[in-house]
Design brief:
Elements lengths: L7 E5 L4 H12 L3 E6 L2 H10 L4 E4 L5 H15 L4 E4 L18 H30 L2 E5 L14 H19 L4 E7 L6 E2 L8 E2 L23 H8 L11 E4 L3 H4 L8 H7 L2
Parallel strand pairs: 1-2, 1-4, 2-3, 4-5, 5-6, 6-9
Antiparallel strand pairs: 7-8
EC number: 1.3.1.87
InterPro entries: NAD(P)-bd_dom_sf, SDR_fam
Keywords: Oxidoreductase
């Protein structure tokens, strides 16, 4: 028995990394899957390598592109049961002292447009169809939705915002549409920085990751995190849950991570 048999899911940012792993797991669980992503080359690769996936090239910061993705998904599969908001960018762990004062506004706007507004636009576009099926919304939150030092001064607040979106939408859309999220810890996957911060893709490799900082003492793969997405996307198995954020953080929430002090102390010392 598969948990998502004949369910229809639209996943943003599903052409690579954690999103790609979720796509493949949903397919294994019997779902029909559509993917909205801004990277045409990765969409082409996904289409070649995963039979039956509907790929849609578009930008999550555009309401028109989100609405088009929903429309194409329904045209192809007949309905929409699950919307997974997953597309995101990183800030390369930039601290406030290291962020050029002239770039703060542009960097903030670009990252929050993708990481926060993109989720709202996707949910808004999907809502009319999800209301018909009493569907589910699943967002990708982060351990940075609860803790510091899971990114920089832009990324961490953006992921805190996702926790608020989950709770508010769960309140607004109950009882028709359930809204939940998965908060992964370390994921060995590429994340692009915003264009204003250089636009480079970055990845913390298994060799660079110190698993001993976390109680589970493992180096996870993107595939390790897909189970909670399946649970929250499943009509039957997520029935009593809305406003829930599953913290798959390798145990960080029960220990925390001790790190060296940031550069703020230098600024205080130097009087800058």
């Amino acid at each position: 028995m598969t948990w998502l048999d004949k369910q229809v899911a639209l996943i943003t940012g599903g052409a690579s990394g954690l999103g790609r792993a979720v796509v493949e797991r949903f397919l294994d669980e019997g779902a029909n899957v559509a993917v909205l992503d801004v990277d045409r080359d990765r969409l082409d690769a996904l289409e070649r390598e995963c039979d039956g996936v509907l790929t849609i090239h578009g930008d999550v910061t555009s309401l028109d592109d989100n609405e088009r993705a929903v429309s194409e998904t329904v045209d192809q599969f007949g309905r929409l049961d699950v919307f997974v908001g997953n597309a995101g960018v990183f800030d390369d762990n930039v601290s406030l002292p290291d962020l050029d004062a002239d770039d703060i506004g542009a960097s903030f706007a670009e990252l929050f447009e993708i990481n926060v507004l993109g989720y709202l636009l996707g949910a808004r576009a999907a809502l009319p169809e999800l209301a018909k099926t009493e569907g589910r919304i699943v967002f990708t939150a982060s351990q940075a939705s609860f803790n510091s030092d899971g990114g920089g001064i832009l990324y961490v607040p953006s992921k805190h915002a996702i926790a608020g979106i989950v709770r508010q939408l769960a309140f607004e859309l109950a009882p028709t549409v359930r809204v939940n999220a998965v908060a992964p810890g370390y994921v060995p996957t590429e994340l692009s920085a915003t264009d204003t911060l250089g636009g480079d893709r970055a990845i913390v490799t298994a060799e660079e990751f110190d698993a001993s900082n976390h109680p589970l003492d493992i180096v996870p793969t993107p595939e390790d995190y897909t189970g909670p997405y399946v649970l929250l996307a499943s009509r039957e198995n997520s029935r009593p849950m809305t406003g829930t954020i599953i913290r798959a953080d390798l145990g960080r929430s029960v220990r925390g991570i001790t790190s060296v002090a940031g550069r703020a102390a230098e600024f205080v010392t130097d009087g800058l």
